[in-house]
Amino acid sequence: MQQTMLSSDAPLIALIAGEDSGDQLGADLIDALRERYPLARFVGIGGPRMLARGFESWYDIRELSVMGFAEVVKHLPRLLRLRRELLARLVAAKPSITIGIDAPDFTLGVERKLKQAGFLTAHYVSPSVWAWREKRAAKIGESAERVLCLFPMEPAIYARHGVDARFVGHPLADRFPMVSDREASRDALGLPHNAPVLAVLPGSRPSEIERVGAIFIEAARRVAAAMPAVRIVVPAANDQVHARLETLLQGFPGTPPLLTDGHAHEAMLASDAVLLASGTATLEAMLAKRPMVVGYRVSPTSYRIAKALRMLKTDVYSLPNILARACGLGREPLVPEYMQDDCTPGNLAQATLDLLADSERRGEIVAAFEYLHQELRGGLDGRAADHAADAIAELLARAGLPASAPAH
After folding, report:
1. By the 8 A CB rule, do 43 and 52 touch?
2. Contact 296/317 with Cβ under 8 angstroms?
3. How confident is the model at residue 68 (pLDDT cuts 50, 70, 90)?
4. CA 65, CA 98: separation in Å to the nearest integer?
5. CB count, 10 Å around CB of 16?
6. pTM over 0.85
């Protein structure tokens, strides 16, 4: 018997987000759920976007922003204490449903304890079961009544393990047009229309900049030396990243790069090619239809653990390459990627110069990106957040809590 606090007038919905991207997903989901449950109360852990929607955050979302095995181990005592406190508050509050948003190392443990105690749970954003130990799908089913998937190949993997999973579309696919306006983006950033533009995005976290920032900026220097006409734009995700990038860019040859506060989307849209760190930004560049070169390094300890435990199931790492394989575009990497020891200034610079010099190849990549954009929409009408809210509303209705406003 599920211990839900059932009220058709004012359901209590708990959300747990652990990253900036989860905060955006949570904010959109709150908007969509409030259309169905106008008097709902939303509690848990969230960031500024969720707070702006009236969300009641019990803890600072930055307490969960930890990446990599080594980093998690360092912060483990604090994270375990936080999880115990959060669980106690949730059990006392008896939410109608608890939805973990990404951050699987933290949220799935909370969901599992709640589900074992008879509470209704769901998980929004499937962990990368197609890359890391597919058998985890069954374990995820022990945590969540339903998994909401952003990629079309994921529900079939869960089905093999008897787990209810629903493809709801990727929210980023809603935010990018199929055809973008390069000139308008260049105007917004003050970039010329007639020069080649390279966007450089070495990461959004200070830890990422410490690992690969110097490598990316040196690669950009080499590109600028070989192609003096190129204009380079470097978006900084926050003040810390901006300060570090500003230092790394000192003494840059030729025309100084444009260092912006934010504006990553505009930088991508304004560019002819993007040099960037592996992660969600590669998906954004794909949806912007911009050819890219991808590089990344994790901490040596994290990398050695992953290799020793044979946790990787794939030999490609960036989302465009993974999606291209999953959607039948062949096994050859669609975009060049350089990971760990291969992520060097020389490799990144040469691949970028090759891409900027080959307009035919760039056209082929853009056509493939257009196809993948359609696949991420999945033929679904409406926003991804609405499909996610519909999937949550079905679970609540099954538990005896119908929506008080019609679903879309």
Report:
1. no
2. yes
3. very low
4. 20
5. 31
6. no
Please count the CA atoms within 13 angstroms of the CA of 278 that sit on its side-chain side: 21
**Tens of pLDDT, residues 236-278:** 989 999 999 999 999 998 899 999 999 999 999 999 999 999 8
SS3 of the chain: the string is CCCCCCCCCCCEEEEEECCHHHHHHHHHHHHHHHHHCCCCEEEEEECHHHHCCCCEEEEEHHHHCCCCHHHHHHHHHHHHHHHHHHHHHHHHHCCCEEEEECCHHHHHHHHHHHHHCCCCEEEECCCCCCCECCCHHHHHHCCCCEEEECCCCHHHHHHCCCCCEEECCCHHHHHCCCCCCHHHHHHHHCCCCCCCEEEEECCCCHHHHHHHHHHHHHHHHHHHHHCCCCEEEEEECCHHHHHHHHHHCCCCCCCCCEEEECCHHHHHHHCCEEEEECCHHHHHHHHCCCCEEEEECCCHHHHHHHHHCCCECCCCCCHHHHHHHHCCCCCCCCCCEEEHHHCCHHHHHHHHHHHHHCHHHHHHHHHHHHHHHHHHHCCCCCCHHHHHHHHHHHHHHHCCCCCCCCCC
| CA end-to-end distance (rounded Å), the chain | 29
Q: pLDDT (tens digit, 9 = 90+) per residue, 124-181? A: 999 877 666 677 888 999 999 999 999 988 999 999 999 999 999 999 998 898 888 9
pLDDT for 61 equals: 86
**b/e burial code for range 215-229 (CB count within 10 A of at least 16 → b):** bbbbbbbbbbeebee
Predicted confidence (pLDDT) per residue in 375-407, tens digit: 898 766 778 999 999 999 999 999 888 877 655
In terms of Cβ atoms closer than 10 Å to its own Cβ (0-12, 13-18, 19+), residue 287 is buried
Using CB atoms within 10 A of its CB, is residue 367 exposed (0-12), middle (13-18) or buried (19+)? Answer: exposed
* Partners of 261 in the β-ladder: 236
Task: Please give the pLDDT value at position 205.
Answer: 85
